[in-house]
Amino acid sequence: MSLRLLSTFCAFALLTAAAPKTGRELFETNCSMCHGKDGTGGHGGANLRDGLKYGRDVKSISNVIAHGIPSNGMPSFASHSPAEIHKLAEYVLTLHRQGQARIERGSAK
Questions:
Q1: Domain count within the chain
Q2: What stretch of H or E contains 34?
Q3: Do 75 and 86 touch, CB atoms closer than 8 A?
Q4: Which residues are within 8 A (CB) of 57 and not within 5 positions of it... i.e. 6 or more apart?
Q5: Which of 16, 21, 35, 71 has a Cα-to-Cα distance from 7 of 20 to 30 A?
């Protein structure tokens, strides 16, 4: 009985480890150390909520993530799958839109 339980646990652990990560999880793992956990900037990374210098659409953001911008210190994340890069780009765009909405609410006061 314990052997069956152990093999079930191992199979579950493998499936969980292989499960696709969300854009937020990918961001927290790969980007938050430079861009801050909430995207407001950090150790050398741009404030993603304020402005997006290289494009404000998923395709442009994906390009920056995949190829980096070495002159600005942004590394390439080409080792990630296209699906992961897409999820990251969508999440960055979400952070940017949240920041823009806060700016608009602040200026409406």
A1: 1
A2: helix 32-35
A3: no
A4: 93
A5: 21
**3-class DSSP assignment, residue 69:** strand
Q: How many residues does the chain have?
A: 109
pLDDT in tens, the chain (109 residues): 444 544 444 444 444 455 569 999 999 999 999 999 999 998 889 999 998 999 999 999 999 999 999 999 999 999 999 999 999 999 999 999 999 988 788 765 5
Residue 76: inside a domain, yes or no? yes
Could you tell me which of 65, 73, 72 has the C-alpha nearest to residue 91? Answer: 65
How buried is residue 93: exposed, middle or buried, by Cβ count under 10 Å (0-12/13-18/19+)?
A: buried
Residue 74 sits at φ, ψ, to 5 deg, of -85, 115
